[in-house]
Amino acid sequence: MTRSIFVVAALLLLAHRGAAQQAANPHGALSLSCATCHAPNGWKPARVSDAFKHAPTTFPLEGAHTRTTCTGCHKRLDFKDVATTCTSCHEDVHKGELGADCARCHTPRTFAEEPAMKQAHELTRFPLRGAHTTVSCSSCHTRSGSGQLQFVGRGTTCQACHATDAQAVAVPNHKAAGFTDCASCHSINTWRNARFDHNQTAFPLVGAHQATTCQGCHGDGVYRGKTVDCAGCHRADYDRTATPPHAAAGFPTTCATCHNTTAWPGVPFDHNATRFALTGAHNAPACTACHGDQVYRGKSMECASCHQADFQATKNPSHASSVFTAPCTACHTTTSWGGASFNHDATRFPLAGAHRATACMGCHGDGVFAGKATTCASCHQARYDAARTPPHAGFPTACESCHGTTTWTGATFDHSASDFPLTGAHRATSCTGCHGDGVFNGKATDCASCHRARYDATTNPPHAAAGYSTACSTCHTTTAWPGAVFSHSTTRFPLTGAHVAAPCQGCHADGVYRGKSMDCYSCHRTSYDATRTPPHGASAIGTVCTQCHTTSAWAGGTYDHAVTSFPLTGAHRASSCNGCHADGVYNGKSTACLSCHQTDYSATTRPPHGSSGIGTVCSSCHTTTAWLPGTFNHSATAFPLTGAHTAATCLSCHGDGVYRGKSTACVSCHQANYNQTTNPNHAPAQFPTACASCHTTTTWLGATFDHDSRYFPIYSGKHRGKWSSCATCHTSPTNYQVFTCLTCHEHNKTSMDDKHKSMSSYRYDSATCYSCHPRGTKP
Asked: What distance in Å separates the CA atoms of residue 691 and residue 666, rounded to the nearest whole number?
């Protein structure tokens, strides 16, 4: 019996081995245990066991794929290098029109799952909102002549789908009026019950305009380009107004200058808003006192246009014969014509000194008032000609240079006010010491014009032979000629360090003083060539010696890397020169981190720098102190971290290995929070996924919505504290555009109808309430 069992087992083993050998060739390089797919009770049909589930491959099975047989995809029993794209198994019914990424609209659960397609609509230029979410795809993406749904190039304007609706509206006639912007009146929830907010146009309605019906202004069927000029509607009022006669007087048709939107009559004219504000005695006369000629526009504002008779009658002084040209206001006020006073200080010649006591006729005895000369010589020429100490002939006639307005005699000349202030020995020199030649104007002020003989006679150093400048003040003072000192600090080469003690001949032994080279190398080339650490010449180190050496001594030079394009910081300070310049390259050495730290970059795995496409600007995360630990400043990216984001680990957001091009939209991480929120219910109400409009990065809960500034004020004004929840006003939990005022404002004759009996547009419904009270206050 035992031997029989053994024989049977041996036969079964041979049978299994034969089956495996037969299956080896079709399966190719599939290296799996047979039991993974085959059962002991039958080689066929093979089944994917729970132990396999395709998970070890690059294509784990999910959804409908888990119910597909192996041969459903591996029809020829090919298992190696099988394509994993959707189109390798599923025919592209869109003929490539939507690209090869089927997962944008379809899921593995079922190919025709429309909610997934609508969710994909969020990635297009036209996310679905309102009533658009309830329509089928084919409602908008109609089929072409070939029967294929059209997706690419579909228009996103309202007119693309709703042109027929627009054409059918008769009140107002959308087609005749040229209305095309549906969203200005209609919402995405329903076409009907459209509301037009005139306050959003260039002509907000105020005053009596608010009670006027639409046809009152648009009875001509003109809606677009309607004139907002008052005269466009009120021309008849303008033409029949007789006090004053608007048309005859040529009044402007900018009615708002005098009238308001409450009523046409009973408007006062504010003369102070014109170019001629009324003051003094002008306030009392009637309008016809000035406008009796019916001239209102362009009326002259000159005093003489009304006061010419007063001007002609004035004899002290005689205005007409004296040809007074100044405006009357120069002397007269609007209080009265008499008692005028003339302020000479307001002219080009304010009176000072003896001029104040002089009578008007003392200067104006010739009857000349306007254009009277203001030069001293016009009155004092005789005194100028009589002066002998010094003789003024040739002196400028600008007498005020030396004389005052108090008296002519006792004049003093302030040489400090000239181009040559006197200093030192010049102060004690008599006037003739310099002006003995009789030259006062145009006298040369350069030192050599007086001291040329001393310049030529100086031999230590030889001024003339060395080509010294004749600007003597460079070394000499006005005190004395000898004992001059030369300040090298005033030249382009101030002396410092060992240069201060060097004799002049140490540098100027060649007799060159002017144009002497200031380049260190011109004197210190021997020291440059002899330096070996580092070898200056061989290493092409620059000849700007001051970069490393000082003027104290050549030896002990230090190189300040801070003046280069690569200042040393952190661990770089402790590195030896050869640590970076062992290749002998000093000039043009690369300063990129990667030029030295490529190994560190390639070896970093958290995150993997190379495979993640992380930039090679190492300083973005690492410091010069050490490669580890690196820190990343998220504030330098397009998504600075705030609130709870600052405490999140890198992998909580980048667990998918995506660092560059990571989506910054809130919903890309917080879709679950959005879907789970029920107060208010975000998803059914089609709330926008711009989470930041209500939520902060601190926490999802406790969001605030700025209802007052964007919509109806409920946190301020009369409605503050009058509600308990959103549902008090918003009765539809799936549509927050639906609201009611009638829950609180009950319909009864005393509180509603009587209050609105003068309003022709009054209706007891919420939409009408909101149209008149958009801010919860009286209109």
From this structure: 6
Per-residue burial over 546-562, b = 16 or more CB atoms within 10 Å of its CB, e = otherwise:
eebbeeeebeeeeeeee
Please answer whether residues 455 and 472 qualify as being in contact, where contact means their C-beta atoms are separated by less than 8 angstroms: yes
In contact, 253 and 230? CB cutoff 8 Å: yes
Runs of H (alpha helix) within 81-201: 114-120, 137-140, 158-168, 174-177
* Residue 768 DSSP SS3: helix
DSSP assignment string, 476-506: --SS-SSS----GGGSSS---THHHHS-HHH
How many other C-beta atoms lie within 10 A of the C-beta of residue 403? 19
Q: For the range 682-687, what are the long-range contacts, defined as Cβ-Cβ under 8 Å and sequence gap of 24 or more?
A: 684/733, 684/734, 685/733, 685/734, 685/735, 685/736, 686/129, 686/130, 686/133, 686/734
Q: How far apart are CA 446 and CA 449, in angstroms?
A: 6
| Contact status, residue 621 vs residue 631, Cβ threshold 8 Å | yes
Give bridge partners of residue 143 from the DSSP assignment: 149
* Distance linking the first and last C-alpha atoms of the chain: 108
**Listed range (88-92, 500-504, 533-537, 743-747) with the worst mean pLDDT:** 533-537
Q: How many CA atoms lie within 13 Å of 596's alpha carbon, on the beta-carbon side?
A: 17
What is the structure's pLDDT at 645?
Answer: 92
Omega before residue 534 within 30° of 0, cis: yes
CA distance 185 to 164: 16
DSSP assignment of 516-575: ----THHHHHHHHHH-BTTBTTTTT--S-GGGT--SS-SSS----GGGSSS---GGGGGS
> Whose CA is closest to 436, among 450, 418, 422?
450
Return the closest-CA partner of residue 581 out of 634, 541, 641, 628: 541
Indicate the pLDDT class of residue 23, thresholds 50, 70 and 90: very low
* Contact by Cβ (8 Å): 205, 199: yes
Q: Return d(Cα 57, Cα 69) in angstroms, integer.
A: 16
SS (H, E, C) 349-381: CCCCHHHCCCCHHHHHCCCCCCCCCCCCHHHHH
- Overall pTM surpassing 0.70 (yes/no): no
Proportion of the chain in helix, strand, coil states, percent, rounded to 5 = 35, 5, 60
Q: Give the model confidence (pLDDT) of 199-230 as tens digits.
A: 888 889 888 888 888 778 887 878 878 888 88
Reply yes or no on whether the pLDDT at 514 is more than 90.
Answer: no
Rg (CA), the chain: 50
| CA distance linking residue 308 with residue 330, whole number of Å | 15
Residue 530: CA count within 13 A, CB half-sphere:
6
Give dist(CA 474, CA 484) in Å, integer: 9
